[in-house]
Sequence to fold (414 residues):
Amino acid sequence: MAATKKKKVAKKKDEKATAKKTAAKKTTAKKSTTAKKTATAKKTTTKKAVKKAPAKSKKTTAKETVATEAAAKNSQKKKLAEDTKIAEEKRLAEEAAAKKAEEERLAEEARIAEEKRLAEEAAAKKAEEERLAEEARIAEEKRLAEEAAAKKAEEERLAEEARIAEEKRLAEEAAAKKRAAEIHQKIKEIAAKEAMESESSNTPPPPPPATPPENSFGKPMMIAAACFILIIAMIIISSFNNSNRYFIKNTFQGMEIWKGDFAPVSKHKIAFLEGVVYPGEEKNCYTAKEVLPVAFFHYINAADALLNADGDIDFKRARTYIDNASKYATDTKDAETLSEYRTLFFQVSLKPELDTGHDTEAVSHTENEATHSATQEASEASPEIEAPAPSSHDKETEAPKVHEKTPHGESSHN
Fold:
């Protein structure tokens, strides 16, 4: 493409040079024709003057000579003027042609430079687009790989939890079946012994011994007592296991937390969290570590929202939320969080009193709060605390709705 353009430019230059040469030849021919005409007119005038000379006087001859010289001089001036005009026209034509050629050359160079610039810009833009596309592709592949790895890890984790839960359930079922089989075997043994005793009672009685006979109901009573003790032990074990179980009911209003009683199957409600849905996996029963942190952080978040709110703060509600949260603390980390929020509560609640200069009241308030906090922390020393069911006062001071992100789209009932 560049070679074709160069050929076109060279061709135009050759055409311009040919046009200049043609114009120069025409100008030279015109000059020679004009000079010949001038010389011919001069000769003719001289001959006429020579022919008429004998017939005229010297004075007239002198006048004619002067006129002839003046005419020749005028003719010479005209010739010079004509030559000057022709030379000027030639110079102007050459300058115009040179200027036009220069303008065309500059325009061609500008066009070539512009095309080169546009081509370079297009190439750079294409390279940048390819680079960005490659980076986007690599980032997308990396993101998809990370998502796939995370999904795989989550599936493996869920599968492992499901496997552990299934093994635990099977072990509990096996233990229950084993206990039932043992009880059934004991019952069979008791029935067999009673049958043997009834058969032996149908035989002729032995001769009366010299000593009084033993009580015939002693052995059956012992067996019945052993069965009763075994049943009581199974009930106690089942009640103990049930007392450590927690249950969740997701309703349209919120989440209910139930705790098993020290009985085989009974339970009671210990908390109601309005506007909350359990974020974890749905199961038949839960441990304290799985359930109580939901209630703990529900009340902690409510207290945090009150203490960091603008304007007047309801310190009574904030204090109630912190106290309610303390009922559901399960480990030392929760205790540290409670301590931090109690400190924040004291700082925020004492700030207006210190600003108004009520030092005595502030000190008294601080002592009362410190005493109450110490009592609460002492009561949290045990690893697990059974939280009582919410009273009417708790319902009045119930925490505001806390919308938590959960994997469930709607509330469900366990």
Remarks:
- Strands lie at 246-250, 254-260, 267-274.
